[in-house]
Amino acid sequence: xxxxxxxxxxxTLEHIARSTVQIPRTEQWTMxxxxxxxxxxxxxxxxxxxxxxxxxxxxxxxxxNSVFGTMVEAVRVQGRRPExxxxxxxxxxxxxxPTAGPFSPHRYYDFTPQATTEYTxxxxxxxxxxxxxxxxxxxFIEEELKPDMEQQFRIDRSRQxxxxxxxxxxxxxxxxxxxxxxxxxxxxxxxxxxxxxNVMQAExxxxxxxxxxxxxxxxxxxxxGEQEKTHPARNNDKASSLTERLSAxxxxxxxxxxxxxxxxxxxxxxxxxxxxxxxxxxxxxx
Length: 286
Prior knowledge:
Mean pLDDT: 91
Number of strands: 10
CATH topology: Rossmann fold
Structural class: alpha/beta
Distance between the termini: 31 Å
Low-confidence stretches: none
CATH class: Alpha Beta
Order of helices and strands: EEEEEHHEHHEHEHEHEH
Strand content: 15-25%
Shape: globular
């Protein structure tokens, strides 16, 4: 993955040779889904360290245009000394979009189970993008992206994690409720639980009802910034209450926790979530 440097100002440093900056051991390509023909920019980091006999842990990262570099550098540095950092080397699979910006409007479609009936426009008055494609997006991950990754890379299928933030965090919880066996580790950063509230509540109830007959083996972590408490959506309260409800089930295979990061907001919390995710999902003993 490469980034184009700015052109030097006239008369300054023209004599210094320049080149693009690369993230080591990464590559990217465009992948189109069979269902819907949506184009995704797939970004993959593979560690320099040799894989364990069972393969590398893998982190599937949503909104990769915005946070792939942050996740990769954290994995690359922490994975060098697992005995010191508590984090094994891992593969990072970023799912992004063919855009130069950090976000694509198409995320509204991919990350939401249904179109919202509570919101009609963005804060600037423009209409919201199309929504309601979460089932299709999950099918793409499970039936197209994962098999392709497992064919190309040494991946431990028992140690798969998914990381999403904001609407991506909503999608992470949607996946937990609808297909908990898809991943071992679920990391929902600042999930937009005010979106599709009735839908998500129904999915949670269905998930709980299935647990007796279909126990799970998952670890779930919801993390948010303390300053998000001031937002009228009150997603901190919603996330904390969700954690309490699922913890109260006392299901041995369901491990869920909630963390608030002091003095962080909806965006500034991201590096903290990413750093903690690596130990959460890639610990040698987990």
